[in-house]
Amino acid sequence: MTIRLHNTLTRQKEDFTPLDASKVRMYVCGPTVYDYAHIGNARPVIVFDVLYRLLRHTYGEDHVTYVRNITDIDDKINARAAEVAAAKNISVEEARVEITTRTTQQYFDDVTALGCLMPTHNPRATDYVSGMVAMIATLIEAGHAYEAEGHVLYDVSSKPDYGKLSRRSLDEMMAGARVEVAPYKKNPMDFVLWKPSDDLTPGWQSPWGRGRPGWHIECSVMGGALLGDSFDIHGGGVDLMFPHHENEIAQSEGAHHDHPLAQIWMHNGFLQVEGEKMSKSLGNFITIDELLRSEKFGERQWPGSVLRLAMLMTNYAQPIDWTVDRLSEAYSKIASWFVSSFGLTPSTELPVGLIDVLSNDLNTHEAIKILDALCDGAARDPEGKQLLCNALYFLGISPEYEVFKKFRILLREAGSGSELSELELVAKIQDELLLELGVGRQWVDEKIFTRAAARKAKDFKESDRIRDELLAKGIVLKDGPTGTTWEVKR
RNA sequence: GGCCACGUGGCGGAGUGGUUACGCGACGGUCUGCAAAACCGUUUACUCCGGUUCAAUUCCGGACGUGGCCUCCA
Description:
CATH topology of the largest domain: Rossmann fold
Number of domains: 3
CATH superfamily of the largest domain: HUPs
CATH class of the largest domain: Alpha Beta
Strand content: 5-15%
């Protein structure tokens, strides 16, 4: 099966042919670790995790290298570090390490909860500073960069195809430029490769004095060090296309004799929250951590699998409006899938067509349709059940206790007489829910027993009264052919 | 202001030059003492205006709308 991917460079869907099929290489821009990752940060992580899984399936697990960097040198980090250093009376460097170490761990915890595999490499910028210095020196030597007032700047006019990714010409950019131009720049669009640090700012020694690398050079160096001068796929958010990715291309290709940095550039779409741009001032800024572990959004916690599915319901390149309704829809879908595949152990056999639709530029929505179809037929098709389980595992959507509990869905299944071996889990969930409602199992059983007698005597008035009494406590009764069962009201 | 995307039924959201995707919801039915759940069925769409075509939601142009980037907020 040929994988087809939309390439931003050509604006077309292309057949994907790895430079070396025994060593497929992908780079995705990772987080700047100064604070909790927000839900917008989660999208590329999830999208490219699915692509990583597809590539591993197609080319073999040992033949795919996935690099996602950790940016731990950055002026936002430095600003935080200065605050923390002042508050705790520690050095700026100590504060920087503390912030980036803690935030990196939070990030890993978050994306793990979202069902994402660990990339092959998670390079930190701080480990690659010498490589950055070397690349900058190479760029100066090649005539692509110049030193000015302690800064080293990339000379965009030295690269005639600058702007090829975002399809902007230098003239257009300068005409539309709104920024005040630093006086030491030859060209307004020249961007910084190295900048000087004062004594209160983290810095490293270099031929141009003590300073720190610019943002763009970090990715060029880490990608080059771990994947080589040219690799297969470079991914990231559409917002990074300009200037970040454009500058990465200029740096890497400028330093590597114009060898193309990446064959295919992929960009995921932006996220809005309830119809508005996410921002701290609007108060709709929401982190992955808050969704997973607080009730800030929609007054409930959301399991990682639900967030993952909500993200994959839409094509990766399209914008997403992140709403409570969307998450609720994902929640009910997840719940029915988990029930249908409950208790099974995943194997490697995948449903027909799943790899095909994913290979078509990651058509995750078509994949969801396949899962829905399997789920529909699950009651009378044990093989379909197993395939559903396998597909969920493949897509990184693993059953979570929280889903079963919060959605009360297993209780319904158990009550309807299906053959569930894990009745203990059901009992455990029931007990927890009853505890929350403040009623005892025995009390419920007695009420049901009394009501059964009333029904037998055709005293429906009394029978309905008891049902309402239980409903008031949050317990819904259901009369089936084998007797009365109950579930906690959702 | 410049550049780039996108605009499908109540909502989410694929896809296609001609054969009303699909999911959720809603409505109807079966079942039930009545319900609930489950199952079966029905229901509505392609922003607007031109053009190309035998035929356009699908191709081209324009308008309007939404969003992104140009400002190291993904």
